[in-house]
Amino acid sequence: MRIKNWDFALLGLGSLVLFGLTVGRDTNREWKKYQKRYYQMEYSQAMARGGKGPMEPLRYKINQIMIPGTDIVDRCTTCHLGFDNTEAGFEDNPYKAHPNPYQHPPEDFGCPICHGGQGLATTVADAHGERENWQYPILKSDYVQASCSKCHQDQELIKDAPLLLKGKELFAQYECLGCHSLRGEGEKDAPDLTNEGDKKRHEFDFGKYDSPKLTQADWQFMHLKDPQVFNPDSEMPNLGLSDEEAKALTIYVLSLTEKETPETLIYAKKP
Ligand code: HEC
Ligand code: HEC
Ligand code: HEC
Ligand code: HEC
Questions:
Q1: 59 alpha carbon to ligand 2 midpoint, in Å?
Q2: pLDDT tens, position by position, 48-94
Q3: Which of 204, 216, 228, 236 for a ligand 4 pocket mutation test, highest count of atoms within 8 Å of Cβ?
Q4: 148 CA closest ligand 3 atom index
């Protein structure tokens, strides 16, 4: 009889320990660190401005956006809390306010539609796709203009996506279609570029530079600067591009896609 009670006691103790471990792991979730820091920053700012009394207590929460009319779900704003807090002037990511936050409100667009990445993830490495098995790592500030033409015509982008338009110009100027083909135009002496921007990371050979930190954008930039960098036998000529030109061309090449954009998100100028 006594022994049996011990069994129960041990079992009880065991589940308590397991429960404790689960709770422990849960309170240590990476994203909570960012929410806590953001709260502290807002708090000290409120105090410095002579705020009265404490703000509402911190409540940890996974922020999830479901984009109407699509199957896109993302949790990026779980960490990127300052997205539209343009007043605070926080200087570091993920707390920084977004450039032009109101042009594409997160509740209508989310983040991956422009930046890529893994919407549902809640760790930095997973969300940003800095993992070998994730094929579309985020497009950082430098290259994110590659997304604009999914939804906009050139003439709407003259001011806001200058590098994308520059890339398109350079593509014509350097006569890339003298070897490549694009949507049925050009020559067949080099790979077709119609869906170059859709290619997965594992479809690129990074040669001796292989690392999960390198993205499609890095491959394109390095290859345009020096076509023999990954494959010494490449027959693409070195065009002597400047960094600025290679960056613009990278953005243009990454913008080439055959994927359909959900119709409800495409920009249609209001009459
Ligand atoms: C767990 C927290 C977390 C989540 C979730 C998260 N981020 Fe971030 N993000 C960060 C941190 C921290 C930085 C700054 C350090 C860095 O760049 O890695 C950052 C930086 C960035 C940058 C700036 C990179 C640059 O150098 O231009 C972009 C863009 C970005 N995140 C996009 C996203 C997108 C898109 C998602 C959702 C798919 C996302 N993030 C989800 C924490 C997060
Ligand atoms: C319409 C496209 C678009 C959407 C949607 C979008 N971004 Fe951006 N994002 C940009 C552009 C463009 C830049 C670069 C602006 C620049 O540096 O000129 C940028 C830059 C950033 C940066 C770097 C800012 C810096 O100065 O360091 C972060 C972080 C970021 N975005 C996160 C997000 C998050 C989080 C979301 C979703 C809530 C999001 N973005 C949604 C286009 C977009
Ligand atoms: C998924 C589709 C989509 C993508 C990608 C996208 N946009 Fe937009 N954009 C829109 C829509 C739709 C609107 C209109 C939003 C509204 O009025 O509510 C808009 C509005 C704008 C506006 C304001 C124009 C106006 O008439 O008020 C500018 C500027 C703009 N986008 C530039 C960009 C740039 C630059 C990029 C790339 C970094 C980009 N967009 C990426 C769909 C998109
Ligand atoms: C003289 C012919 C020639 C010209 C001109 C040329 N390329 Fe290439 N390109 C090639 C060949 C051959 C390859 C395949 C070998 C390699 O990957 O380097 C290639 C590969 C590429 C790839 C990689 C395609 C893939 O996914 O495998 C891209 C992107 C590219 N070129 C872009 C450009 C751009 C942009 C220009 C103009 C600035 C250009 N090329 C001009 C011959 C050319």
A1: 26
A2: 988 777 788 999 999 999 988 888 899 999 999 999 999 999 999 99
A3: 236
A4: 37
Residue of the CA atom closest to atom 40 of ligand 4? 176
Contacts 24+ apart (CB under 8 A), 96-99: none
Own/partner long-range contacts of 30-34 (Cβ < 8 Å, ≥24 apart): 30/122, 30/123, 30/124, 31/62, 31/78, 31/79, 31/122, 31/123, 32/60, 34/78, 34/79, 34/81, 34/94, 34/95
The size of the chain, in residues, is: 271
253 lines ligand 4 (CB under 6 A): yes
Buried b (16+ CB within 10 A) or exposed e, 85-113: beeeebeeebbbbbeeeeebebeebbbbb
- pLDDT of 26-41, one tens digit each? 557 999 999 999 999 9
The CA R_g of the chain, rounded to the nearest whole Å, is 24
